[in-house]
Structures are given as structure tokens and as C-alpha cells.
Amino acid sequence: MQRFPVIGVLALQGDYESHARALEQVNAQPKMVRTAKDLEQVEGLIIPGGESTTFLKLLEREELFLPLQQFVRTRPTFGTCAGCILLAKRVTRPNQQSLGVLDATVERNAYGRQIDSEILTGPTSLPGGPLEMVFIRAPRIVELGNSVEVLAQREGSPVLVRQMNILAATFHPELSHAYGMSKNGDEHISDNEDEHPDRRVHRYFAQMVEEYSRQARSGASEAHKHPAQTTAADRE
Ligand code: GLN
Questions:
Q1: Residue 17 is among the residues annotated as catalytic for this protein
Q2: Under 8 Å between Cβ of 123 and 130
Q3: Extents of the domains making up the chain
């Protein structure tokens, strides 16, 4: 019988509703996460886009920073845009605090003020050909550790990466349309996300969560944790 993994969406700010819809479309059960107790009830978590500085303030206010840091060190977590910034070990422009699990340096607002939002199509190793990617005041991954796999690129730089149980995108995959299905211009960013959505990235993450939970059930998950995600130094 098919399982429907329960995947949390951090619902403090940002476009968490769109991620919840995207998860339903790939047969996962979304659950909004606002408290540490909510975190205990999910198998994986999406940290949506938004404003990373605001996230940090809200995480502090809700006393969620430390529980979230514990969660992302072992459990499948997908950070998109501001979520990617929060997961990175190093954040620049300016330097700022983060959850510190993804072995990467991420530069905030890296594409300048003129190009606030952009829709591009780039190569991906996910099955199904090129991927439409919506960038909104996007960060840029300027440095990546050797253990991080690149799953999609924008003009040669990584925009979708995986480090064992961590997935991170500098774009908004909840807004991707199937290749050739998007209109030009900004209007479809907000209006038409449910028309011909491309759910490959959410499906990929849901599979990561299922795989993790399957291994956890069989007691094998310890052996599969990534050293960079779980070293003793990281826990200090
Ligand atoms: N510019 C935002 C930040 O620095 C991220 C933008 C986004 O998530 N769309 O946090």
C-alpha cells in the first residue's frame, strides 16, 4: 500500500501555502509547522522562501531556532531561496546567522536590485529535461563543499543542490511550470502557478523523505547519515 509521507512546511512567513499545495500534488501530506511540537510530528520539512532576516527574528521569538537546528541536522529538509540561506553554513552580504548544515557559501540578493525577479530555464539531472526556475531576489551559491551534489544549474552555477538529507534551491520550485507552458512576464508568477505546474522538485524531495523514513523504520538510518550533516563538531 502506498504511504503518504507527512511533510511539514515552516509556516512563519513566505509562500508556505503554495508549498503545501505542491506537496499534495505529489501525494504527500503537508502539515504547517509553527511550533517545536509541530516539528515532532513531521517526517521532513520545507523551509520556504521569504526574507531570511525575518525568519531569524521569528524563529527566535517562537523559540524555534534550536529545535529547528536539531531537526535539520538529521531529518530531510528542503530550503528554498531564504530557506537555502538559512541552511547554508556560510552566508555573505551581509554575514548572518544560519542553521549551518549545508556545506556552502551563499551570497544574499546576489543578482542586484535591477533583476528583482527572473524566470529562466536551466539544465537539471532530474528526469524530464530542462527545468523552469523562478528567481525572486535570489541568493547565489558561490562555494560548495565536495560532498554536495549539483542537481540543476543557472548559467553554470548551482541552483539546486543536495547533501544527503538536505536539499536546497536558490529559486522557487513551487512556482515552476512544465517546460514550454509558462507565459512570459511577471503575471504568471503570482496568478497561474496551478496551471501546468512542474512538480519534479517536490516529488524528488518527497522521495527523499520516504527513503529516510523507510530506513529509519528498518533501523538503518544511522548508517546513512552524512558526516557533514552530523559530525560532533557540528553539534557543538
Ligand atoms: N532576498 C531574500 C533573503 O535574503 C530571499 C528571497 C526569497 O526567498 N525569495 O532572505
A1: no
A2: yes
A3: 6-235
Q: Using one digit for the tens of pLDDT, what is the confidence trace for 13-27? A: 999 999 999 999 999
Q: What is the pLDDT of residue 147?
A: 95
Q: What is the pLDDT of residues 106-127, one digit of tens each?
A: 999 998 765 678 999 999 999 9
Q: What is the pLDDT of residue 111?
A: 85
Closest approach atom of ligand 1 to CA 54:
10
Alpha-carbon span 152 to 227, nearest angstrom:
23
> Can you tell me the distance from the alpha carbon of 92 to that of 122, in angstroms, rounded to the nearest whole number?
25
Determine contact, residues 79/86, Cβ cutoff 8 Å.
Answer: yes
Pocket test for ligand 1, best of 52, 87, 113, 170 (most atoms within 8 A of CB): 52
SS3 at position 69: helix
Question: In CATH terms, is domain 6-235 a member of 3.40.1170.10?
Answer: no
Task: Please give the DSSP secondary-structure letter assigned to residue 173.
Answer: G
The model carries a pTM of 0.88
